[in-house]
Amino acid sequence: MITITFNRALSILLLAGILVTVGGIFLTNKAIGEEGGRKIVVWQTGLNEAAKDQLLAKHGGVKLKNLSLVNGSAVWLPNKASEKALGRGTGVLRVEEDILMSAQGKPSSSATTQPPQTLPWGIDRVDAELVWPSGNNADPVKVAIVDTGISATHPDLTANIKGGYNAINPTKSWNDDNGHGSHVAGTVAALNNSIGVVGVGPAIDLLAVKVLNRQGSGFLSDVIEGIQWAMNNNAQVINLSLGSDSGTQTMHDAVAAAHNAGVVVVAAAGNNGGAVIYPAAYPEVIAVSATDSNNLLASFSSRGPEVDLAAPGVGVLSTYKGTGYATMSGTSMATPHVTGAAALVLNTPVGTYDANGNGLWDPSEVQQKLQDRATDLGDAGFDNLYGWGLVNAYSAVQP
Ligand code: CA
Ligand code: CA
Q: What is the CATH number of domain 4-98?
């Protein structure tokens, strides 16, 4: 329905000069992919904004947003021919699909009531509660949950939320309309109080970055903008409980840029039972597979040589949208156990793990310590199911 009238509607908007609203209103339907639609253009360095706009206009395109992290822009192009022509243009490195990425977890039950606080089995299993025996130790490490948002009203989360951004529509709230992002956030940093659940690090600071819609899917360009925003707002760890079966050069460039800037990037290995998805499969990203309460790999968990660590991901209780709670399963749920552990490690002195001698934690040093201190599962040493083993937050913060 929207797609049929899309081209006409866009022309009208173009004539009216209403360009900024195009992305928010129309560009949420992947069916337009055949005829054109949302793409990512990567520019050659040194091209100014006016030149970019001119190039796009020449091929009937519209710029939706800049992606400075990868020297690119999310754009709308009318058809395949315009995409090819733009790709050959001076100043353009390449034009790529703006692929869809999906949340990697599903709820099995949810409730709106607030039960008395219990220790979720996963938090217990990674020994996180042993890190903060006397309550909420200060932990100013900032973790960005790049996801469906985080509930802005949840009494078990709000005290830890230090800011947020909606990359799908910056004029709208980062509040979670799905529940997935709130669930992930709660595993990282639900408060240690009298209600609900408690996270791996109940004093970790959260940034709520909304890049996935109510259905749990979103464009790569919004994910990249979310990563960019998180970096600009001093995130030290970025949790990506999302992914796609295929990767792109630009997706790889974005996570590599975050890693190279000193940000620990943790991502879900995927729920297809097969090969590790992207961006988890990239070497700059800590890929997390999912285990059950028997420390066995979940049947749905992706596996392969790209898996770095395993963590609890079956029947995980955490915070949900609104003021609710839910039990969910997926590598999405495993990922924040590792993210939280990384944040706890970042709150300790780097000590002997300072491989490059700069006195600071670098992402590869954090990853090394998490791997060294993990509990080996499956075949001795590294294996394709559990990577280096089950993450252990308590062991990871010991000198
Ligand atoms: Ca709580
Ligand atoms: Ca270092």
A: 3.30.70.80
